[in-house]
Protein backbone atom coordinates (compact mmCIF):
# COMPACT_ATOMS: atom_id res chain seq x y z
CA UNK A 1 0.00 0.00 0.00
CA UNK A 2 1.29 3.44 -0.85
CA UNK A 3 1.96 5.39 2.36
CA UNK A 4 2.03 9.14 2.63
CA UNK A 5 3.32 10.98 5.62
CA UNK A 6 0.55 12.57 7.71
CA UNK A 7 1.70 16.00 6.50
CA UNK A 8 1.60 14.95 2.83
CA UNK A 9 -1.81 13.35 3.34
CA UNK A 10 -3.17 16.51 4.96
CA UNK A 11 -1.78 18.69 2.17
CA UNK A 12 -3.29 16.44 -0.49
CA UNK A 13 -6.63 16.42 1.32
CA UNK A 14 -6.63 20.23 1.58
CA UNK A 15 -6.08 20.67 -2.14
CA UNK A 16 -8.61 17.97 -2.97
CA UNK A 17 -6.11 15.57 -4.54
CA UNK A 18 -7.11 11.92 -4.60
CA UNK A 19 -4.45 10.64 -2.22
CA UNK A 20 -4.94 6.94 -2.85
CA UNK A 21 -6.81 6.75 -6.12
CA UNK A 22 -6.13 3.39 -7.72
CA UNK A 23 -4.37 1.89 -4.72
CA UNK A 24 -5.02 -1.45 -3.08
CA UNK A 25 -6.81 0.12 -0.11
CA UNK A 26 -9.08 -2.83 0.52
CA UNK A 27 -12.13 -0.79 -0.53
CA UNK A 28 -14.34 -2.61 -3.04
CA UNK A 29 -16.41 -0.19 -5.18
CA UNK A 30 -18.73 -3.07 -6.12
CA UNK A 31 -20.15 -2.84 -2.58
CA UNK A 32 -21.68 0.51 -3.57
CA UNK A 33 -23.58 -0.97 -6.50
CA UNK A 34 -24.76 -3.87 -4.35
CA UNK A 35 -26.04 -1.56 -1.61
CA UNK A 36 -27.78 0.73 -4.10
CA UNK A 37 -29.42 -2.26 -5.80
CA UNK A 38 -30.67 -3.57 -2.45
CA UNK A 39 -31.87 -0.10 -1.46
CA UNK A 40 -33.91 0.19 -4.66
CA UNK A 41 -36.10 -2.82 -3.89
CA UNK A 42 -39.68 -1.91 -2.90
CA UNK A 43 -39.96 -1.01 0.77
CA UNK A 44 -36.19 -0.90 1.31
CA UNK A 45 -34.43 2.13 2.74
CA UNK A 46 -30.72 2.30 3.15
CA UNK A 47 -27.99 4.83 3.58
CA UNK A 48 -25.21 3.36 1.50
CA UNK A 49 -22.58 6.03 2.25
CA UNK A 50 -20.57 3.85 4.64
CA UNK A 51 -20.82 0.73 2.52
CA UNK A 52 -17.55 -1.16 2.26
CA UNK A 53 -15.73 0.97 4.82
CA UNK A 54 -15.38 -1.76 7.45
CA UNK A 55 -13.69 -4.20 5.06
CA UNK A 56 -11.34 -1.40 4.03
CA UNK A 57 -10.58 -0.53 7.66
CA UNK A 58 -9.88 -4.16 8.51
CA UNK A 59 -7.51 -4.40 5.56
CA UNK A 60 -5.83 -1.05 6.21
CA UNK A 61 -5.32 -1.70 9.91
CA UNK A 62 -3.68 -5.02 9.08
CA UNK A 63 -1.36 -3.52 6.45
CA UNK A 64 -0.49 -0.12 7.91
CA UNK A 65 2.51 -0.13 10.21
CA UNK A 66 3.00 3.60 10.75
CA UNK A 67 2.44 5.63 13.86
CA UNK A 68 -0.56 7.76 12.77
CA UNK A 69 -3.65 6.15 14.33
CA UNK A 70 -5.97 8.04 11.96
CA UNK A 71 -4.20 6.95 8.78
CA UNK A 72 -6.26 3.77 8.10
CA UNK A 73 -9.51 5.68 8.53
CA UNK A 74 -8.30 8.58 6.38
CA UNK A 75 -7.14 6.13 3.70
CA UNK A 76 -10.48 4.32 3.67
CA UNK A 77 -12.53 7.51 3.67
CA UNK A 78 -10.52 8.70 0.69
CA UNK A 79 -10.94 5.39 -1.17
CA UNK A 80 -14.66 5.39 -0.40
CA UNK A 81 -15.03 9.01 -1.50
CA UNK A 82 -13.21 8.31 -4.77
CA UNK A 83 -15.57 5.41 -5.48
CA UNK A 84 -18.63 7.52 -4.66
CA UNK A 85 -17.30 10.38 -6.79
CA UNK A 86 -16.97 8.00 -9.75
CA UNK A 87 -20.50 6.71 -9.11
CA UNK A 88 -21.92 10.23 -8.89
CA UNK A 89 -20.17 11.23 -12.11
CA UNK A 90 -21.64 8.23 -13.91
CA UNK A 91 -25.14 8.83 -12.55
CA UNK A 92 -24.95 12.55 -13.31
CA UNK A 93 -23.84 11.94 -16.90
CA UNK A 94 -26.74 9.51 -17.39
CA UNK A 95 -29.19 12.00 -15.86
CA UNK A 96 -27.83 14.79 -18.04
CA UNK A 97 -28.33 12.72 -21.21
CA UNK A 98 -31.89 11.87 -20.11
CA UNK A 99 -32.91 15.55 -19.89
CA UNK A 100 -35.33 16.76 -22.53
CA UNK A 101 -33.51 19.57 -24.24
CA UNK A 102 -30.75 22.06 -23.58
CA UNK A 103 -32.72 24.11 -21.01
CA UNK A 104 -33.33 21.05 -18.83
CA UNK A 105 -29.69 20.04 -19.15
CA UNK A 106 -28.53 23.50 -18.12
CA UNK A 107 -30.92 23.45 -15.16
CA UNK A 108 -29.38 20.16 -14.01
CA UNK A 109 -25.87 21.59 -14.44
CA UNK A 110 -26.79 24.65 -12.34
CA UNK A 111 -28.36 22.41 -9.71
CA UNK A 112 -25.23 20.25 -9.46
CA UNK A 113 -22.97 23.30 -9.21
CA UNK A 114 -25.15 24.66 -6.42
CA UNK A 115 -25.11 21.30 -4.69
CA UNK A 116 -21.28 21.20 -4.87
CA UNK A 117 -21.10 24.66 -3.27
CA UNK A 118 -23.54 23.52 -0.56
CA UNK A 119 -21.65 20.27 0.09
CA UNK A 120 -18.32 22.04 0.35
CA UNK A 121 -19.68 24.68 2.76
CA UNK A 122 -21.46 22.06 4.86
CA UNK A 123 -18.33 19.93 5.09
CA UNK A 124 -16.09 22.87 5.94
CA UNK A 125 -18.47 23.52 8.82
CA UNK A 126 -18.42 19.85 9.85
CA UNK A 127 -14.63 19.96 9.94
CA UNK A 128 -14.57 23.16 11.97
CA UNK A 129 -17.17 21.79 14.40
CA UNK A 130 -15.12 18.61 14.96
CA UNK A 131 -12.28 20.62 16.39
CA UNK A 132 -8.55 20.45 16.07
CA UNK A 133 -7.15 17.00 15.45
CA UNK A 134 -10.36 15.57 13.97
CA UNK A 135 -11.29 18.26 11.46
CA UNK A 136 -9.87 16.53 8.37
CA UNK A 137 -11.52 13.20 9.18
CA UNK A 138 -14.86 14.91 9.83
CA UNK A 139 -14.58 16.88 6.60
CA UNK A 140 -13.62 13.77 4.61
CA UNK A 141 -16.49 11.76 6.09
CA UNK A 142 -18.92 14.59 5.32
CA UNK A 143 -17.77 14.89 1.71
CA UNK A 144 -18.04 11.12 1.24
CA UNK A 145 -21.50 10.97 2.85
CA UNK A 146 -22.92 13.91 0.93
CA UNK A 147 -21.51 12.63 -2.37
CA UNK A 148 -23.11 9.23 -1.69
CA UNK A 149 -26.45 10.83 -0.87
CA UNK A 150 -26.38 12.94 -4.02
CA UNK A 151 -25.66 9.88 -6.16
CA UNK A 152 -28.55 8.02 -4.52
CA UNK A 153 -30.84 11.02 -4.97
CA UNK A 154 -30.04 11.34 -8.67
CA UNK A 155 -30.59 7.60 -9.07
CA UNK A 156 -33.96 7.79 -7.35
CA UNK A 157 -35.04 10.71 -9.55
CA UNK A 158 -34.14 8.72 -12.63
CA UNK A 159 -35.81 5.62 -11.23
CA UNK A 160 -32.93 3.18 -11.39
CA UNK A 161 -29.45 2.08 -10.47
From TrEMBL:
InterPro entries, A to Z: LprI-like_N
Keywords on record: Signal
Name of the featured protein: Lysozyme inhibitor LprI-like N-terminal domain-containing protein
Record-annotated Lysozyme inhibitor LprI-like N-terminal domain positions: 74-152
Leader peptide range in chain numbering: 1-21
Keyword Transferase: no
Organism: Paracoccus aminovorans
Amino acid sequence: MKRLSPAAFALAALVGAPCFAGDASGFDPAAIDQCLAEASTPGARADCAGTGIQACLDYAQEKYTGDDPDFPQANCLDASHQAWEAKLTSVYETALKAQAGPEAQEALRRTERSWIDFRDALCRHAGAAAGEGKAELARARCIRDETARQAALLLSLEGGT
